[in-house]
Structures are given as structure tokens and as C-alpha cells.
């Protein structure tokens, strides 16, 4: 901050740019220095190994700038030496990576001498004079799986040794403010982005300890801040959970870890920070405070808590009274985050209605903030379908940009009618939920397609005034590069090594040639689409393709990308996803060509597999029943990757056409083509 009276005294303009405290310190020393040359400038030349300027003594020089060494006004003489100042003090230097202290003494205050002032760090340059800059290990600034690579991170994942790029997110807030809901959604997004993330919940540690030590139920009295014994136990559980978190980041493959606890007091937050810094000085830390002032949201969260593990099987009325008392105990000692604590933080008010951020630095922290900006709790539907049958489906070609067939056109017409019926039903259900007197407008309905002809033609019968249409390049099918336009038999014959590599790892395999993509590449280009879907409060239909549909379904179902490659997305079917507080529910509708209508397929008739979800919360296991390719088609997977078959186990193969852009069993494909042509 510049001093207001510098110009009046004729001070150097550079002195005006100094921070106020440093400028005042220099002025005091100037007044105390006796016999100093009144014309000497407050900034002089100093040695620097990286300067292109050379002094009269042959030593490289550079001129100090704002935040660099401000030499003492100590009586410089014309012979290049200076009279030592009797003052010993510290000057702060901005080296670009932080503020470091330079200790100036009468022995070290020779401005034009060969030895610069002593820096508090004792690092030296190899074979050269002592460096003014404190050396430190710089963390990788940007790692994106599939898009970046380096010596420490050949696959784009954050290296285990690169602690400076890893992030600890510490939750803050009283119960029933949506912390667990936020952490699970955030963890799902980061895991989808291939930044291994896990939530460490202190409540789980408490319940596990109580079960192992027969502690019994912990009612609201256990959370009384005036009970020293209970407080000690809760603090110990918090630190034990934090130790597990740090082990996951420092010794495991974790990139982000979320500490899910109340952390409502400054003392607790200070203790947590001390524990982290005792283990690592490089880990990035971000506090995420959830504040809920909407009474309706709080009541909904309380109702969800009554079905949680703390109140399972107990009387609802008694549970409600007990939980409200627990809230009062936490609220009595609650100290919201503020700037004075000095920690980076994000305040999330009413689960995304308002966000306040402070000192957000680093790629992962910025990515977290960006995702939280696109949060909403509206009831809505997300529909996903593949493009209708096209000419390349019939010939079994990979990729391509062909037109839809007559059968595909029939599906496109039926799809527009079906979505209209489903939209009306959903709007009616929302109207019944509205409180009397509220003026609630029904949500809009968007239709997004890829830029391939078969996708645009599938959506051609939607009225653009009622269903705003948009084409997106991000929704295009995986680019097959040099393989585009070939059948899988031709692919296997012309590119045998590539074919074998794809069989080993479909997730990481990238098609050869210009523009060839892998599942990871498609996942990265879909990230902006997913963020926009999370932001929308309206219904949406995505008309896309096999690989894209798999990845989108995998994200909302919380599946790892390895599992996604086996998801079954049959031709002429529509998935409906409904985000809820507990997760995302899904259902599958199938087009029955003979009846020219859609029917909801019971999951009992689908070929479903019990799949372990990504481990969002430490020591918690969750499973999903997801549609996968039939086991009959998987039997030949050693020679042919048939998981991309468009068949399902509840319908004869003669009623299906092969997937466009992805392969099936070759013999089965030929049989089906013969039946279709006949």
C-alpha cells in the first residue's frame, strides 16, 4: 500500500509501491542512519545469478522490484562499497513462491559487495554463491488423466509422491445441513474425473467403536459440549479418522480426501490443521462449510436423519426430539468460519443457493469450487437414448455418419410421442407435491443431440418451441480413427495388434490414426456436459451413442470406468434417471416395434449384475444392480469383445440390431445380419 505523503517529500515512486509496514520500517531506518547521502535511492543494485545486467565489477546484477531487497540507507560511497548500518533487522522478500526473511546485519549489509544478505534458508546453488531464493519442491500444477503425462505421472494420475497436488477437504457445519449429501456428490464427480477421492466420516468411526466396545446408543446427551468425557471421546474419534485419511493420501493412491465431521469450533479446526501439518507440510487444505437457513431444507434433512444408522429401528417421535436436542448442543458452540482464521474456505449456503470463497488456490480446489457452483436440488428427469437404427448398423461398420433407416425413423417418431407423455405425467406429479399457494412453474425440457446425422435425425420430430434442440460435438460417438468405416472382421485382419490391445483394456485403448480416441478421452470431453446437466433445473433428453451413453450412465450410477465398458445400452431403448437426496434412481423403457409404443422393463427381466459402486465413503460398501451384456454373449470374450452387444437377455436376438461403432461377436453378428436381410 503506498504512503499518502511520499510525493510531497519527493520519495522514489518505487517506495510508494511497498507494503505500508515495510515502507515505514525503511523510513525509520533512513532517519536513524547518520551521514547518509541524501540523494541515495531506497532501491539499489544487488547480485542475482539470473540477471542479464552486469555490474562494473563483472558480477551479474538485477534491479530490485516491489517486494525484493530494499537495502539500508547506510552511507554508500562512490567506490562501490557502503558504510555498514548499525541497525540489524529483517526484510521480507517475495520470491514468487512465498515470502521469505532476509536477515541484514552490519557484516552482511554490503550492497555492492560479492556476498548478498543472508536468507533464512541455508540452500546454496551447486557450484555458485548462496542463492537468495528458498528452494522447495514444486508440486505438479495440472494432472488430467488421459490428457497430460509427465515423468512422475505417465498416465496423468496424480503421483503418490506429489503431495503438493493432493487436497484435503474439511467439512464444517452442524448436522442436517446437507454435508453428507454434498460430500457424496463431490466425491462422485472427482472419482469420475479420475482423481481418486474418498470420504472419511467420523460418525462411522463412532458407530464402529461403539459396536466393538458395547458402548450402547449415543443419545443427544452424548453430544453435550459440557460433558468432558464424551467430548474427549469425540475428539479422539475425529483424530483417528483423520489419521486414516492421511494414510490414504500419503501412503495410498488417493488424490482427494474429504473429512466429514462437524468441526464447528475454531479449536477443533486448529487441532485438525496441526495434525495435518505434522504429517505433511505440502498437502493442500480446503475447508467446506455448509450453512442451511432454509427451514424447509432443514426439515427434509432431519427426516432423512431419522432413517439413518443412529435411529434405525427406534420410535420416530422420540428420535425426532432427540435429534433436535443434538442440534441445539452443536449450535450452542458453533463458530462459523471467517477470514481471521487464515484458512482457505468455501461457504455453501442452502446447498448451493449462495457460495462464498476465500483464498482458493490450486487446480483441485478450483475444480471443487467450479463443481459446487453447479449444484441444485430440483426434482427433474434425465433421459438418455442412443440414436435410432442407421444404415451402418445393418452392415456392421464401426463409426461412420450414415442416415437412419425406415425402422429408425419409426423409432424417432415414437420417441417424440413417448417423451411428451412422460413430461405431462411428471409435471402433474410435481403439481401434486406443491404446497397450496406456491406459484411453481413446471420445468422446461431440453433435447441435446450429437452432431452426427443419425442423432440429429432421431430428434427431428420434437417441436423446437416446446423442446429447445441443441447439437453438441461432445456427444459424438468415440472417434475410431483409421478404423472408422471398417467392420470388426476387417479391423481384426488389418490391425491385429490394435485389436488385441483393445481386447485387453477397452478403457485405456486408443484407436489408431488421427483423432482416434479412448474411453478416457471421451470421458474428458464429457466433463463440461455433466457439469451443465448438474446445473440444470429442467428435464433433458440426450440423444447420443453407445460409448457416450455408457459413460453418462456410469457417472450417475456411481460406477467406475472399468465397469462402464460392460454396461448394456440396447438400441431403441431409453433410460430415465431421477436424482434424489439418497442417490440416483434409474429405469429402462423399451420400444416395442409391433405395438409402436414403449414399455417399462422390469429389472427382473433384465440381465443385471450386482456391481460394487466406487468407494465414496471409507469403510462403506454399496452395490448397484446395473444392466450388463448377457452372459451368453460374454462367453466368447476371450476372442471377441462382445460386451458391446446391443442384445438384452429378455428378448430374442432376431429383434435387435448390432451396435453402431462398437463390436459384437462376429459369428453372432453374421447370423443376425442374415436374419435381418431375409
Question: Any overview of this molecule?
Answer:
By secondary structure, the chain is of the alpha/beta class. The protein has 20 helices and 21 strands. It has a 7-stranded mixed beta sheet. A hairpin with a 5-residue loop joins strand 2 (53-54) and strand 3. Helix 4 packs across helix 5, helix 5 packs parallel to helix 6 and helix 13 (488-494) packs across helix 14 (496-504). The longest helix has 28 residues, at 406-433. The chain is globular and about 80 Å long. The termini are far apart.
List keywords for this structure.
single chain; 678 residues; alpha/beta; seven-stranded mixed sheet; six-stranded mixed sheet; globular; disordered N terminus; disordered C terminus
Share of helix among residues? 25-40%
According to DSSP, the number of beta strands is 21
Radius of gyration: 32 Å
Strand content: 15-25%
Query: Quick one: biggest sheet?
Result: 7 strands, mixed
Mean pLDDT: 75
What general outline do the C-alpha atoms trace?
globular
Separate helix tally: 20
Topology:
Layout: H1 13-16, H2 20-32, E1 45-47, E2 53-54, E3 60-63, E4 89-94, E5 99-104, E6 118-119, E7 167-172, H3 179-192, E8 197-201, H4 202-212, H5 228-250, E9 256-260, H6 266-279, E10 284-291, H7 295-305, H8 316-331, E11 345-349, E12 354-358, H9 363-372, E13 382-386, H10 391-395, H11 406-433, E14 445-449, H12 453-458, E15 469-471, H13 488-494, H14 496-504, H15 519-525, H16 527-535, E16 539-544, H17 546-556, H18 561-564, E17 573-580, E18 583-592, E19 597-600, E20 608-612, E21 623-627, H19 631-634, H20 666-677
Helix pairs in contact: 4-5, 5-6, 13-14
Amino acid at each position: 500500500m503506498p504512503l499518502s505523503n511520499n510525493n510531497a517529500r519527493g520519495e522514489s515512486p518505487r517506495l510508494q509501491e511497498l507494503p505500508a509496514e515495510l515502507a515505514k520500517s525503511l523510513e525509520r531506518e533512513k532517519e536513524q542512519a547518520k551521514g547518509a547521502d541524501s540523494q541515495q535511492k531506497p532501491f539499489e543494485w544487488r547480485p542475482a545469478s539470473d540477471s542479464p545486467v552486469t555490474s562494473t565489477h563483472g558480477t551479474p546484477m538485477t534491479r530490485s522490484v516491489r517486494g525484493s531487497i530494499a537495502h539500508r540507507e547506510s552511507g554508500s560511497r562512490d567506490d562501490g562499497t557502503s558504510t555498514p548500518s548499525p541497525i540489524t533487522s529483517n526484510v521480507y522478500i517475495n520470491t514468487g513462491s512465498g515470502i521469505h526473511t532476509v536477515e541484514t546485519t552490519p557484516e552482511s549489509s554490503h550492497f555492492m559487495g560479492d556476498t548478498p544478505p543472508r536468507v533464512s534458508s541455508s540452500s546454496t546453488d551447486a557450484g555458485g554463491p548462496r542463492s537468495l531464493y528458498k528452494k522447495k519442491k514444486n508440486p505438479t500444477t495440472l494432472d488430467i488423466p488421459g490428457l497430460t503425462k509427465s515423468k512422475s505421472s505417465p498416465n496423468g494420475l496424480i503421483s503418490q509422491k506429489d503431495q503438493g497436488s493432493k487436497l484435503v477437504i474439511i467439512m464444517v457445519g452442524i448436522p442436517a445441513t446437507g454435508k453428507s449429501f454434498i460430500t457424496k456428490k463431490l466425491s462422485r464427480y472427482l472419482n469420475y474425473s479420475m482423481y481418486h477421492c474418498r470420504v472419511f466420516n467420523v460418525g462411522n468411526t463412532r458407530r464402529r467403536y461403539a459396536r466393538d466396545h458395547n458402548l450402547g446408543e449415543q443419545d443427544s446427551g452424548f453430544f453435550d459440549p459440557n460433558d468432558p468425557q464424551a467430548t474427549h471421546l469425540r475428539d479422539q474419534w475425529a483424530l483417528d479418522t483423520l489419521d486414516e485419511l492421511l494414510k490414504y493420501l500419503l501412503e495410498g493412491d488417493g488424490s482427494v480426501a474429504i473429512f466429514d465431521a462437524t468441526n464447528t469450533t475454531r479449536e477443533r479446526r486448529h487441532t485438525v490443521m496441526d495434525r495435518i501439518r505434522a504429517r505433511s507440510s505440502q498437502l493442500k487444505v480446503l475447508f467446506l462449510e455448509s450453512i442451511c437457513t432454509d427451514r424447509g431444507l432443514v426439515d427434509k434433512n432431519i427426516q432423512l436423519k431419522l432413517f439413518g444408522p443412529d435411529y434405525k429401528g427406534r420410535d420416530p417421535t422420540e428420535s425426532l426430539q432427540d435429534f433436535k436436542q443434538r442440534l441445539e448442543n452443536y449450535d450452542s458452540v458453533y463458530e462459523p468460519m471467517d477470514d481471521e482464521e487464515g484458512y482457505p474456505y468455501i461457504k455453501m449456503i442452502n446447498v448451493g443457493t449462495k457460495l462464498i470463497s476465500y483464498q482458493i488456490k490450486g487446480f483441485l480446489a478450483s475444480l471443487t469450487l467450479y463443481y459446487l457452483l453447479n449444484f441444485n436440488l430440483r426434482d427433474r428427469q434425465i433421459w438418455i437414448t442412443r440414436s435410432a437404427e442407421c444404415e451402418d448398423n445393418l452392415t456392421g461398420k464401426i463409426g461412420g455418419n450414415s442416415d437412419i433407416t425406415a425402422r429408425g425413423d419409426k423409432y424417432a417418431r415414437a420417441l417424440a410421442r413417448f417423451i411428451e407423455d412422460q413430461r405431462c405425467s411428471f409435471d402433474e406429479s410435481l403439481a401434486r407435491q406443491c404446497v397450496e399457494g406456491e406459484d411453481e412453474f413446471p420445468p422446461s425440457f431440453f433435447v441435446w443431440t450429437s452432431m452426427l446425422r443419425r442423432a440429429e435425425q432421431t430428434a427431428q420430430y420434437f417441436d423446437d418451441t416446446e423442446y429447445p434442440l441443441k447439437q453438441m460435438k461432445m456427444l459424438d460417438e468415440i472417434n475410431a480413427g483409421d478404423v472408422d468405416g471398417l467392420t470388426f472382421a476387417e479391423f481384426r485382419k488389418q490391425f491385429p495388434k490394435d485389436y488385441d490391445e483393445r481386447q485387453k483394456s477397452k478403457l485405456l485403448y486408443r484407436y489408431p490414426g488421427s483423432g482416434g480416441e479412448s474411453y478416457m478421452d471421451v470421458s474428458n470431453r464429457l466433463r463440461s456436459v455433466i457439469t451443465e446437466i448438474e446445473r440444470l433445473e429442467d428435464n433433458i433428453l440426450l440423444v447420443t451413442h453407445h460409448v457416450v451413453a455408457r459413460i453418462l450412465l456410469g457417472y450417475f450410477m456411481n460406477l467406475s470406468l472399468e465397469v462402464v465398458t460392460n454396461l448394456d445400452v440396447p438400441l431403441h431403448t431409453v433410460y430415465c434417471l431421477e436424482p434424489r437426496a439418497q442417490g440416483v434412481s434409474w429405469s429402462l423403457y423399451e420400444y416395442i416395434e409391433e405395438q409402436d409404443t414403449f414399455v417399462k422393463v422390469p429389472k427382473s427381466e433384465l440381465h443385471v449384475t450386482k456391481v460394487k459402486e466406487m468407494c465414496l465413503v471409507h469403510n462403506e460398501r454399496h452395490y448397484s444392480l446395473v444392466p450388463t451384456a448377457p452372459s451368453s454373449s460374454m462367453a466368447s470374450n476371450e476372442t471377441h469383445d462382445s460386451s458391446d452387444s446391443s442384445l438384452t437377455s429378455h428378448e430374442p436376438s432376431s429383434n435387435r440390431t448390432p451396435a453402431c461403432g462398437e463390436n459384437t461377436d462376429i459369428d453372432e453378428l453374421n447370423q443376425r445380419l442374415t436374419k435381418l436381410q431375409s
